[in-house]
Structure formats: structure tokens, C-alpha cells
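New to this. Comment on this protein:
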Amino acid sequence: MLEISVRHAFAGFTLDADFKAPPGLTVLFGRSGSGKTTIVNTVAGLLTPDAGRISAGELTLLDTETGVRLKPHHRRLGYIFQEGRLFPHLTVRQNLAYGAWFAPRDAPREEMSRVVGMLGIGDLLDRRPGALSGGEKQRVAIGRALLSAPRLILADEPLAALDEERKAEILPYFERLRDEVNVPILYVSHSASEVARLATTVVALRDGRVAAMGPPGEVLGDVGAMGARGAASVLTARVTRHHPDGLSELAAVAGPLWLPRVAAREGATIRVRIAAQDVILSRARPEGLSALNTLVGTVAEIRPGRGPGTMVTLDLGGDRLSARITRRSADAMGLVPGQTCHAIIKTVAVAPEDVGRASQGTAE
């Protein structure tokens, strides 16, 4: 358990955040300037706040009240930056060995061969960073951080400097890191798609304060934390079949779900992010539509916004699905909690980056 309570004043901005991050991958989510990187730098020891306490398990990293301030190299943290920041004069093998060189002798260590295999960098070991793509550099940076035997991994928007193709290449490796390595991860992002795919816990920040905290499906559907246009749902589904026409058939708790071919084997359990503005509601089961996806649920909550919009949340029998519709539509449909309702989702509305493998905590 990572416990963070920090307060620090900058010119025109004050960070005042207090939260506990359970084991797994915790995403600090929010717009630029919300305080995400400041928190990470405080955990890393690169910034000493005006007041605060930070502990990782039984180890206190910082306590301004008692005067505890562990130096950065004593905190045993692996830091993954936006750029790989590899040593250009060293080969990949030597960069990885540099991380292992800092690992305490009595600390639990990852085997070099296992890390190399997990990250798929075996054919890169004799190259230097100048001969690597952006995605390859980030995979090596992940390996170097992991081989330092960290008690915690910090990742500060590690995909921000990559194009969409490289991001798609790296995301599966962070999923593996989340599921296969017993090291807590504090991950900074302003991408809702990354949150939906990677997070086990989300801490949403706004203006230096915690606006919401919880599982990704709960926080991403929180209009107060995400804003009406950013609200979304995270559904869990099992891949049942890949069809010849390029579509994948999934089994969700509320019915079948059809998506453009997903990069997962048949039988795998995945997460799917669905934006609230891409969901249409119907009281009766629709017929004759081009949309392939119709999920049946019960109206759980209706939250009118300040403008003409209303957020309707359906209980799908385990998952929850949010739909952003107009207040006029909600009134015309006579929606009230407890009603059966059908949610229509266009197959092509779900982008590839909104689909990722479910964490190990998700039942299969």
C-alpha cells in the first residue's frame, strides 16, 4: 500500500492531495497542470513538499513533521520517463545491466532472461539506443527500471512522446507489467483510453486536489471528475470468436458485443471502454438498425447536467454502462430508475486503443 499526503504551494497553484494506492497499477489522471507529475516527483524525492507524509508499506519515504526525508537513491524506485533516457554510449544489454547494478543484494530480483522475454527485446541486446525506435527505447527503459529491484515503479506519461502506432505497441507490455510483476506501479496519464486499459485504481486530480478515486469503471463514469464529454464506461467481456469479415464476437454480461477485430485470443477476457456519448438508449428492443450491439439493462441512475444533457446509467447485471443523452430525450422516454432499457452501441465507435486485456483480478 502506497500512502500519500502532500501539500505544496507554487505561484498560482497549490497541490493538496491525500490518498492511498492499493497494490496494482494506480493511474494519476487529469489534465495538464492538475498536479500529477508533482506528486510523482514528490514520491521520487525530486521535490520536497511544504508538508507531507509518504510511505510504501512499512517504509516511510518522507515525513516532514518528523524530519524523515530519504534521498532518491535510497527509496528504491524505478522511474520511467516520457523519453527512454537510455545511456547512448551503452548497448541495450549494458543499459539493462546498469539497472541491475543498483539492485540491493538482499532485494528480490527479476531474472534478466525473464524480463528480456516479457518485453520482447532479445534481438535488441547488442544495439545502441540510437538504432532503436521510440517504442523499443521505452521497452528497454521498462526493463532497466524493473531490473533495479524497485519497491515501486513510477511512470510519468511514458507514452506521451510516442505516435499512435508506437503507443499500441507499448500498451500490452504495461498490461503484462501490471499482471505479471509483483511491483506496485504509479502511472501518470491524461488519456482516458490508457486509464481504461491499464488501471486497477484511478486517482482523478483536478486543480491539485483529488476529485475522485476508485476502480476505472467507477471513476471514468463520474461526470464530476471526467466532465460530461469525457465520461465513459468500462465493460468486461470474453472473446468468443474472430469472424472472417474482420469482426470479433464477445460475450458481455448483458449480451453479445461485436467489435472490429481485437488483438486477443479466443477465450481471453478483455476490457472495453465505451464513451457515454456513443451510446443510444431505447425503451423497446430496436429492429432494423445498422448498429450491431444492443445490450439490455436496468436504469440505475439519472443525473441531469447543468445544460441540456443528462447522464443515464444502466445496470447490466454486474457492469454499468453510462449514456449521455439530452434531458428532452430522457423526459420523452419517461425514464425512471428500475425500468428496462436497451443500449445501442455502434461497432466502429470503439477504437482499438479502447480495448485491452483484463487484469488478473478479473474473473475469467
Notes: The longest strand covers residues 293-304. The first helix runs from residue 36 to 44.
